């Protein structure tokens, strides 16, 4: 462990830490709003991580500190944790302790020092990074022997039941399970996963991430409403989930649904098909072919699912107009980030075109970076 990480921990917690764990943020290549419909997703982990320096405590207390927080320690008793009692950022790590205890795992207290370079609220899943780093730390500190997918499911349980966000399992699976140089092709029903090689550099391509730096409040209630709409549609169609509706059966199914549910169903079914088409292209080494699929995915999120916004639409339009092969919003929506597939030689040009378009529209300057598929949660020291 670096002297600096140990010193930071010691300053806050007054003792030496026993280790450091890291878990990444993610971008989803394709497969948006499919994970709570039992469908397919294809995320990559980012090089950006949330790091947790930690040690066990014998007194059953959790003492939680974040370098991105307000400078105070949140001090909680493990046996008093229940949904609703923690309302600050600390609900994410506390929720993981709670979920592990609820599942019957023998854990005790801990001191945590959190530090992260995953942008928060940018659709890059800083929440899953925080949960998965916590889960990885507790798994090792208490010798639980849980697998990465098991930790991801417990992290999702923490976010759903303790924090109160009805998210699917994609973000946590990406943060826990991704490997270097691959995208994670995940069946969210069975959690069957395959690491699909994604060598952007060999194809002369880059994945440009454009963080629009906006998050519209509308998103919070809207996400739950969309999820409920999808579940209602599946129920009306007599299906376990929208994943069970094939593209061939889509037109007939749409005729049987009330008009307000049709676009939701069309998005989910066509999006699942875009994930499998993307994987076929990757398996055949045709990365450049992904461009139009990404852009079609964005149109579906914008026109059918209704989760786009002026900033993400403009980022997609400007990137494609400047020569990106394709672009789409990534993450739940109502702001957040856009990904664009761009020839290596055109990255600067595309980034500048997006910035110029934002200036003309009077939007705040977006943050851009290129992403390489990186590794999931692990112990680093
Ligand atoms: P996203 O996951 O897209 O970044 P969310 O709204 O799901 O957005 O999660 C962001 C929230 O996660 C923050 O508002 C904060 O409460 C919590 N969080 C994430 N990373 C940190 C961190 N390093 N320190 C403190 N809180 C964090
Ligand atoms: Mg999140």
From TrEMBL:
Domain Galactokinase N-terminal as annotated: residue spans: 8-56
Site (Transition state stabilizer): 26
Associated pathway: Carbohydrate metabolism; galactose metabolism
Gene3D superfamilies: 3.30.230.10, GHMP kinase, C-terminal domain (3.30.70.890)
Domain GHMP kinase C-terminal: 282-359
GO cellular component: cytosol
Enzyme class label: transferase
Record-listed substrate binding positions: 32-35, 223
GO biological process terms held by the UniProt record: galactose metabolic process
Superkingdom, taxonomy of origin: Bacteria
UniProt name for this protein: Galactokinase
Species annotation: Streptomyces rubellomurinus (strain ATCC 31215)
GN (gene name): galK
């Amino acid at each position: 462990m670096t002297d600096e990480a140990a010193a930071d921990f010691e300053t806050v917690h007054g003792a030496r830490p026993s280790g450091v764990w890291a878990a990444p943020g993610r971008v989803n290549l394709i497969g948006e709003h499919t994970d709570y419909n039992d469908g397919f997703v294809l995320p990559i982990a980012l090089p950006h991580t949330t790091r947790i320096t930690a040690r066990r405590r014998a007194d059953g207390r959790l003492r939680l500190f974040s370098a991105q927080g307000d400078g105070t320690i949140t001090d909680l008793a493990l046996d008093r944790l229940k949904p609703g009692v923690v309302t600050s950022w600390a609900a994410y790590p506390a929720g993981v302790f709670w979920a592990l205890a609820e599942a019957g795992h023998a854990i005790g207290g801990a001191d945590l020092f959190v530090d992260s370079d995953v942008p928060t609220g940018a659709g890059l899943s800083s929440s899953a990074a925080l949960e998965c780093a916590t889960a990885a730390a507790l798994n090792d500190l208490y010798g639980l022997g849980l697998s990465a997918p098991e930790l991801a499911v417990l992290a999702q349980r923490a976010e759903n039941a303790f924090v109160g966000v009805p998210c699917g399992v994609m973000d946590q699976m990406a943060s826990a399970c991704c490997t270097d140089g691959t995208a994670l092709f995940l069946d969210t029903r069975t959690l069957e996963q395959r690491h699909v090689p994604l060598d952007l550099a060999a194809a002369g391509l880059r994945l440009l991430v454009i963080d629009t730096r906006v998050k519209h409040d509308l998103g919070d209630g809207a996400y739950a409403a969309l999820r409920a709409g999808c579940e209602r549609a599946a129920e009306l169609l007599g299906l376990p989930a929208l994943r069970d509706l094939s593209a061939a059966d889509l037109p007939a199914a749409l005729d049987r649904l009330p008009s307000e549910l049709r676009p939701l169903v069309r998005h989910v079914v066509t999006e699942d098909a875009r994930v499998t088409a993307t994987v076929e292209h990757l398996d055949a080494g045709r990365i450049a072919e992904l461009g139009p699929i990404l852009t079609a995915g964005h149109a579906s999120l914008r026109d059918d699912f209704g989760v786009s916004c002026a900033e993400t639409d403009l980022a997609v339009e400007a990137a494609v107009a400047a020569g990106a092969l394709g672009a789409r919003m990534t993450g739940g929506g109502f702001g957040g980030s856009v990904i664009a597939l761009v020839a290596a030689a055109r990255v600067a040009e595309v980034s500048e075109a997006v910035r110029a378009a934002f200036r003309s529209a009077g939007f705040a300057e977006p943050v851009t970076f290129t992403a390489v598929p990186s590794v999931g949660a692990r112990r680093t020291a």
